[in-house]
Every structure is written in structure tokens, then in C-alpha cells.
């Protein structure tokens, strides 16, 4: 373990120095301004670091990451057992002790390890507000599968509740988990937990099938037009590739498989096809067109899956600030 005389900020500064400027810059993107300022000041005041200390800090960082992964997979007991095997009892206990004061395990961890179909049968008869809260804690892919399988009259209601959700008391979370016959983790931070919101439902809607998405948005436009407008501004569907400039489209196409592009374009309108082909080399555009002709009819499900893969590439590149999406109203979203 690293020298215990060092505080957390000092160890973090040494870690960032060891990782180098490129990786450190990526980490800074996820920190608050005050955290960046504190770390920058500490880095500036750090004169020299021995190779031995760098190794100790890196080793401690790795052990903590390993412990967090084990806790997420099977809880604190499971983590301690695996760490004792890997590190020995004393070092394992030291790592666990460092985490217990600050580690926050998200509620409904057991559900995230369960098949969405089983979760659906487990929660489909619950109140829409309860379903909304549970889905807010799941991955977007899991939540999308579940919301897509709900009765149509329930889909929009649940989507609206997710979008309008802000903060949920730990007491409420604990009550719902007890109804689902599970105990809330003893590591749960007792501060209010931020869940749901417009960003959460946008991520879910970007993952559901287009029919479900359309139904939910149409219902929201009637019941909550302002909310529907906020959601639509943040959503990105395949046809929105028209919002990208040529340079961004070319960057996206470098990460897209030709087979997925062929299938996606089978269901695209002429304007989208023209924009895509314009940003391909003449040879590749000709090859894609020939493949599309020889492909024949394609199932709509396959088209949607291929288009969703490309949307996933676009969202990933936007998140990493490699491309910029103009979303209308003169605004540009830059991550």
C-alpha cells in the first residue's frame, strides 16, 4: 500500500502524474471544478516522486478498483473473500476499510444482474412510480427492454415519471427494495440520491425500438408538451445524422461496419442516403449501393438494430468530444 502519511488528494495527484497528461485530461472531464483546482494545485506543488512511490500508488489504485468491482458483483463479503485470496487477509482488510467510509453501492444491484424478462414479470404489476424509480437505477439497455414490454397505456406514464423524477429519499428506496424482498446495502450513502430526469429517459428512449419510442413521445406531446419538447431536443435518432457536418459524418463512418451501413441505409430516406454516400469514397459508395441491391428485402428489426449501432457510435464520439451535434435553436452541444 502507498505511504499512509499521504492524504487522498496527494495520492490522486501522484496517480495523475504517473498516468501522464493525456489520460489525466480524460479523468479531469469527470471531476468538479473545485476538485480540478485542488488537484492542479497539488500537482504543481509536487516536486519529485520516486519510482517506488509511483508503484505503490498505482498498486493501491488497482486494488481499490478491484475491490469495487468485486463489491458490485457480489457484495462486501464476496469482495473480502476474493481479495483475501489475491492479497492476503491483512492487505484485503486494509483495502475494504478504505472503501467502507466512502463507497456508494447503487440500490437494486441485484436487479441489474437479472434477465430483463424476469425483472419485467417481477415489477410489471407495480405502481408506475415504483417502476419508474426501479428503471432509473438500471442500465439504459435493461430499462429499454422492460419499458418496451410494458402495456402501451403504461409506457408513456412510466416514461413521464422517469423524466420528471429528480431526487429520491433513501427511505423510499429502502421501502421499495424491501417490497422486492431485498435489503438495501449497508454501504448506501444516506444523502439523497439523484435518479431519473430527462437525460435518463432520453437514454432509455434512444435504446428502445422505434415503435415504442414513437408511442411514448406521441403520448407525452399530448399530456406534457413542454416535457416532450425537452426530451426531443436531447434525443438522437438515425435520421438526425443530417445534423452532423461532413467532417463529423466522415469520422463516424470510420467506426461503422460496412455491413451495418448497408442494412441501416435500406431503411433510410433518400436525403440521408445522399448525405452518407457523399461522404464515402466513390469506390466505397458504389460498393455499398451494389450490396444494398443484391441484399434484397430486409426485416425492419434488422434495419433498426443496424441504425441503432450507428447511433451508438455517434453518441460515443459526441461523449468523447470528437464530434459536435447541432441540435437546433442555434445551440451546439459540446461535451
Please name the defining characteristics of this protein.
335 residues, two-stranded antiparallel ribbon, single chain, 4 strands, disordered C terminus, mainly alpha
H/E element sequence? HHHHHHHHHHEHEHHHHHHHHEE
Percentage of residues in DSSP E strands: under 5%
Number of strands: 4
DSSP helical segment count: 19
Helix content estimate:
55-70%
Tell me about the biggest sheet? 2 strands, antiparallel
- Shape designation: globular
Q: Provide mean pLDDT, rounded.
A: 75
Spatial strand arrangement across the major sheet: 1-2
Q: Kindly provide the radius of gyration, computed on alpha-carbon positions and rounded to a whole number of angstroms.
A: 24 Å
The first-to-last residue Cα distance is 36 Å
Question: Could you explain the architecture of this structure?
Answer:
The protein is mainly alpha-helical and 335 residues long. The protein is built from 19 helices and 4 strands. The strands form 2 sheets. The protein has a two-stranded antiparallel ribbon with strand order 1-2. Helix 7 packs across helix 9 and helix 13 (210-223) runs antiparallel to helix 14 (225-234).
